């Protein structure tokens, strides 16, 4: 039991450290992109952390298998490099026992990975789409930022406000350029209607459309016939800035609940469902590869096999991606899915485990004889 707890503790704490480091790197990358989007006015500043949080389930589902793989390599690599595993083997701890202990941790990791990829990630993606649609529909108070030129939701005007009063939801010193109609032949800015008002306010109607109500201002417009600007003073001026509520867009596959994916018999849905369950399966399969690859000579150091191990993991991921594209395009049967890739990597992991065992060594010794007999039968026939 002491050895059991020791091995689990070493792998678990190394996996947690790797997971936190990788999550910090990827979240920082997402944070920079989202912050850049917010700086350009794409999303309100107060929703930056919301979008960051919605990216966490998707990132965690992909990083958990990698963190487990690296955790096993680093933890057992250190134990081998410090000759601790040699002592354990001398005390009767076999490599298969180490594999069984590690599979317990990989099974727990697979459960958490499945929760992220099968449930939390689609829910987060769906909520992200809802927030983006709400932002697209709400082109009024929430999206208008003081000191910045912004296009209205119907793309028919450009608005600049000097200041926003959040207490009574009004704007001060509003400049509006009503753009020419898209169907017009001459779309020059000289034909735009320019409006300046002291105050303004957005009103949302029951139909979902929005109007900007300007007060105490002046409207300038070019007369296409006389080529002169007309100046009109007004007390109230109404501008339509949102024609109707944004229609419900088609969701991407990653936002569809997993249960709905299994109910639809299409290539795209099948590829997405196989992709989601691929990450929990990868936690179990890659354990069979990580444990034998963690065996290093004390003189080599614990990082001796890190590069080939990472290349194997990368190849596994790239094969899954390629086969997924094949299933989506229909070149690979949807019922076959990603299972051939899992089977191939599983065979590789099992072969690495048994190559130094008595059964594996006997099989390797008999392999040339079996091949010779097979070739003789082929030539005699």
Number-wise, the strands total 6
Low-confidence stretches: 246-250, 358-364
Beta-strand percentage? Answer: 15-25%
Total domain count: 2
The value of Rg in angstroms is 31 Å
**Biggest β-sheet strands, sense, barrel:** 6 strands, antiparallel
Counting copies of identical and different chains, the oligomeric state is single chain
Q: What is the count of helical runs? A: 9
Q: In percent, how helical is the residue content?
A: 55-70%
Shape: elongated
Order of helices and strands: HHHHEEEEEEHHHHH
Instruction: Report, as a whole number of angstroms, the end-to-end distance.
Output: 58 Å
- The overall pLDDT, averaged over residues, is 79
GO biological process, one term: lipopolysaccharide transport
Keywords: Cell inner membrane, Cell membrane, Membrane, Transmembrane, Transmembrane helix, Transport
Main location: membrane
Membrane topology: Multi-pass membrane protein
Describe the structure.
By secondary structure, the chain is of the alpha+beta class. The protein has 2 domains: 2-135 and 251-356, no CATH class; 155-242, SH3 type barrels (Roll). The protein is built from 9 helices and 6 strands; from the N terminus they run ααααββββββααααα. It has helices at 2-39, 48-81, 84-90, 95-137, 258-263, 267-293, 306-329, 339-354, 358-380, and strands at 150-151, 157-165, 170-178, 193-204, 210-222, 229-242. A 6-stranded antiparallel beta sheet has the order 1-2-3-4-5-6, with no helix packed on it. It is elongated. The protein starts with a helix and ends with a helix.
